Each structure stands twice: as C-alpha cells, then as structure tokens.
Amino acid sequence: xxxxxxxxxxxxxxxxxxxxxxxxxxxxxxxxxxxxxxxxxxxxxxxxxxxxxxxxxxxxxxxxxxxxxxx
Length: 71
Known about the structure:
The model has no long low-confidence stretch (mean pLDDT 84). The chain is an alpha+beta fold. Helix content is 37%, strand content 24%. It has a three-stranded antiparallel beta sheet with strand order 1-3-2.
C-alpha cells in the first residue's frame, strides 16, 4: 500500500487521469480516444475517426489520439 491505498489502485487513477485529459481535448460533439482504445475498435467504427494526432496533457504529457466528430 501507498499511504493506505493499495498499489493496484494506482493504475486506475492513471486511467481516470488520462480519460479526463482526453475529455478536455474534445469539443462538443467529439469523441477522443487513445490509440489502444482505437485499435480495439472494429474496422467498421475505425473508418469514422480522423487521422492520428497528438494532444497535450499536464506538464510534459502528450497523448496520441484519434478523434471522431459526431456533429
């Protein structure tokens, strides 16, 4: 444990943090996903996403993402 939190919970916190960053990079009517999520999608959905791009997170973070514009 780390200060009373199980270490297995830390990856969950990192996942939530990444989700918040990706949500912040999206505009209304857009869905922004990281590359592992995009690769897990079926081909019929992948075709609707824009080309890979990089979005910035906090400090020195950056994420390779794909963007789907719904509207």
